[in-house]
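for the writeup, i need someone to sanity check this before i put it in the appendix. the sequnce is what the collaborator sent (i think, or maybe the updated version? ugh). structure was predicted straight from it, no edits. if anything looks off just tell me and ill rerun, i have time this weekend
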Amino acid sequence: MTLRIHFTAEDLARTRLASAPRPLLELDIAVRLLQERSHPVRFDAWRSRAARHLVPRMRTLCELIPATGASVDFLDLSGEGHPDDLVDRLRGTPADRVRKDLRRWASRPRGLSADVRSLGDDPSLVRQLVDTVAHAHQHFVAPYWSRIDRLAQVDRTRRLQQLAGHGVERLLSGLNPRYIAWHPPVLHLTMASGRDADVRLGGRGLLLIPTLFGSHYPALDDTAEPQPWITYPLYDDRPGAVSAVFTAEALTGSAAPPALTALLGRTRATVLRVIGDHPACTTGQLASHARIALASASEHATVLRRAGLTAQTRDGKNVLHTLTPAGQVLLDAGTG
């Protein structure tokens, strides 16, 4: 059984790649991964570290975000934006919506636990639940975000090349070949829930959102506005590139790897690493992340630019720093 997404010519024209993974959507998928043991090579190191930060209230969060199937509607973590803003939005969920969504969930065969039923009667419990979301993001996703973001940039470059060279059909057929199959004009998705349905986009197109944690089945919201979305797994053909996100070295911030330090010197290598981790950062942000003086950050950035490893653009009075392809290659080689 598959879920079938039907495309028109308008839908194909409006289908697009999201610019980056969504942090709380990654958390939603990560919470599901904690409840099962798939992909041990990729995720067991992460599961081991995450287990150190489990708190009793996580039981309620895991009930509302089960290993498979939809989460409760009011706990929508798929929004785009900064995690703090999204958490604040959740805190403002009206009590009547919580009760309505919980009543709908109560109709499920397995019912609801007493702790979950209490959410509809006590707003303070909802605030505690949202605090648990913030806690989980802080410990399960945020420590690895710079590496997830870098991997997403590599993936995005690859897929944009596919789109430019071969069109949207090549892009769709290469998203996740085991679980997403393109048979024009229909995209077939094998869902973890086994859902069997037909979805018509109605000219809205489809948003394709990359995910690191969702390396298996796709996630989908065909009711999202202004555009339905699905997830696809980040791809990197370098051996171990994905599992390396969760190595102990991933928690060392923007410290440069030894090989890169030996080549460029410690400070300049760190500056290159920071630019890779924080693309389009200003010189002030670069100095802050690298923990060096503003003048030093400007000097090292200039040297890297003249060497062809970084590029600069202007946004008003700010100078923005990004890696060039040569800089990305050097950084990847040093990290590997």
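The two ends are 40 Å apart (CA to CA). The chain is about 50% helix and 15% strand.
thx in advance!!
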